Amino acid sequence: MSAVHEQRQPNPVTKANFFSKWFFIWTREILVKGLQRNLDPSDLYETEPSLESTQVSSFLLGHWEQELKRSKPNVLRMIFKAYGWSFVPASIVYSIMAIAVHTTQPLMLGGLVSFFSESTGKITKHSAYLYAMGVVLCSLISGLFFHPFMKYLFRVGSRVRLACAGLVYRKFLRVSVAADNSGVSGYAISLMATDLPTFNESFYCFHELWRGPLEGVVFVYIIYQLIGWPAVVGLGTIVAFIPLQAWAARAIARYKRSSADVGDERVKLMNEIIAAMQLIKMYAWEKSFAKLIGKVRKEEMDSIRGSTYIYAGLQCTGMISKLSLFLSLVTYVFTGDIVTSQKVFIVASYYDHLNDSLLHSWPLAINMWVETFVVANRVKDFLFQHENPADGGVHNFKEAEDNPEHGNFFGRTHKPKAEVKSITVHKLSASWDQKKQEKRHRHIEDVSFQAQDQQFVGIVGTVGAGKSTLLQVILGELDIISGSVEVNGVLSYAPQEPWLLRGSLRDNILFTEPYDEQRYLEVLRVCHLDRDVEQLPLGDSTRVGEGGASLSGGQKARVSLARAVYRKADIYLLDDPLSAVDSHVSKMLLDRCLNEFLSKKIRILVTHRVQLLRHVDHLV
């Protein structure tokens, strides 16, 4: 799972000097490799420390916590507070330099053209050399600063995207299971895969928001000085298309919002269909669900197609500069003035820049930042999803272990470092939906039990009685309506539906825990996996495939159990891990694993096998 990562070399940019960074010389090594052979993942460098997701997300998290103290939190305002100091001044400096270069170069070109013109001999040879040097110098300055600046803006956009992805990921780990059932998983995937990359592009063109109008004012003034009021004709032609650009930007943003909303609905629907695929196949409902997916996909494609058509139509604006130049020069001739080659070259250059600034770069920047506003609002909506009020979930329990203090949140107390290990549930009532607290909506009602150190507790009941729900409450994944839950000790959990990584068998058992060979081999034995490992082609290094596709249902259940058992915990929550294995294996797991290996731990077992209840100390 981490083999490729271990082979990566340190990023050379971290040791590159200013000259190497400015001219991208540090990329020479990997470019030479790519020239000699095909690159593979091991050729990639380590991520720069400044772009590590942990670092950037922690940095933005602090700003988000400050933003939450305001009456109306705003994601975009938070981003500008966090990163504005790093790119706004640079954008202003670059914009001023770009305007100066774009203003000077046509004048230098006009002077050079005047030297070769037959109608005038006012330009000396020495001046012509200076004009030529000016043209070259302007091109050199533009080339020297453009790419490093674009790279800098792209890095800022990458930081923002990674930081927001970290916030989304952190929130997703804290979101309640009830909220996840309403499509939060698809929402999070859509955000990180489709929406957040918008930050890369929007920061890439941030400086165009003010450079375009400012550059337009400067160029129009110079054109007016050259040809007088006929410049108004050409400018009017360009300005006439600006409302069209504004309408197009709003229309594209509207289509983007519609596409994002329908995309979320499609992802949610696909998740539900994939989860119920076996049932759909058994009832031959493929065509009905295909029509349902096709309808949603058609709505999404209509939105994408609409925005694409508008964007394609905007590409025709490249002819506007030629039309503006033609109308201005025709009007200039009709006024009785003489058109010189110098004026034609200068005016044509400025109109090209005007077309790029006012009809291409500026509208593009506006469009991108309209999309960025939409994305920022979607991120904010996700960050305000209902989450567990307690220190629940694996992620938060890990935080609690690192924190010497413990907290009491809405009736749930967790003390991972308590000397006496126990679980106490007192008159507990819980619901999947905190908004529906009536008794008819409660999934657990007035449940009480206590598990002391080394006790084996069995939880039984009919289907839908709330056995798994009770474990979810203990884990902190469900809202408590009344009563209390006190957990003294570190938890480990084996879910009812095994969840496996697309990695090796060992990766799925260790699950980021440090490798202890003696404990690992013992866990394989007590979970009856030692024989399976011997039969696998690569032993425990065999990759199990997506969701454990290469394993049987019983093997998946035992791998999930082994993962929970391998973790050194005080309390083991086991949600019916014996249901997918036959009676012979079930007895071996009960004897070796639960009654022998975990005999000194608290074990809470959910099961529907009544014959196993004689082994438990307490029954719920």
Automatic annotation (TrEMBL):
<dbReference type="InterPro" id="IPR003593">
    <property type="entry name" value="AAA+_ATPase"/>
</dbReference>
<dbReference type="InterPro" id="IPR011527">
    <property type="entry name" value="ABC1_TM_dom"/>
</dbReference>
<dbReference type="GO" id="GO:0016020">
    <property type="term" value="C:membrane"/>
</dbReference>
<keyword id="KW-0677">Repeat</keyword>
<feature type="transmembrane region" description="Helical">
    <location>
        <begin position="218"/>
        <end position="247"/>
    </location>
</feature>
<dbReference type="InterPro" id="IPR027417">
    <property type="entry name" value="P-loop_NTPase"/>
</dbReference>
<dbReference type="GO" id="GO:0016887">
    <property type="term" value="F:ATP hydrolysis activity"/>
</dbReference>
<feature type="domain" description="ABC transmembrane type-1">
    <location>
        <begin position="90"/>
        <end position="358"/>
    </location>
</feature>
<feature type="domain" description="ABC transporter">
    <location>
        <begin position="420"/>
        <end position="620"/>
    </location>
</feature>
<dbReference type="GO" id="GO:0005524">
    <property type="term" value="F:ATP binding"/>
</dbReference>
<dbReference type="GO" id="GO:0140359">
    <property type="term" value="F:ABC-type transporter activity"/>
</dbReference>
<keyword id="KW-0547">Nucleotide-binding</keyword>
<keyword id="KW-0067">ATP-binding</keyword>
<protein>
    <submittedName>
        <fullName>MIP30867p1</fullName>
    </submittedName>
</protein>
<feature type="transmembrane region" description="Helical">
    <location>
        <begin position="128"/>
        <end position="150"/>
    </location>
</feature>
<dbReference type="Pfam" id="PF00005">
    <property type="entry name" value="ABC_tran"/>
</dbReference>
<dbReference type="InterPro" id="IPR003439">
    <property type="entry name" value="ABC_transporter-like_ATP-bd"/>
</dbReference>
<dbReference type="Pfam" id="PF00664">
    <property type="entry name" value="ABC_membrane"/>
</dbReference>
<dbReference type="InterPro" id="IPR017871">
    <property type="entry name" value="ABC_transporter-like_CS"/>
</dbReference>
<keyword id="KW-0472">Membrane</keyword>
<keyword id="KW-1133">Transmembrane helix</keyword>
<keyword id="KW-0812">Transmembrane</keyword>
<dbReference type="InterPro" id="IPR044746">
    <property type="entry name" value="ABCC_6TM_D1"/>
</dbReference>
<dbReference type="InterPro" id="IPR036640">
    <property type="entry name" value="ABC1_TM_sf"/>
</dbReference>
<keyword id="KW-0813">Transport</keyword>
<dbReference type="InterPro" id="IPR050173">
    <property type="entry name" value="ABC_transporter_C-like"/>
</dbReference>
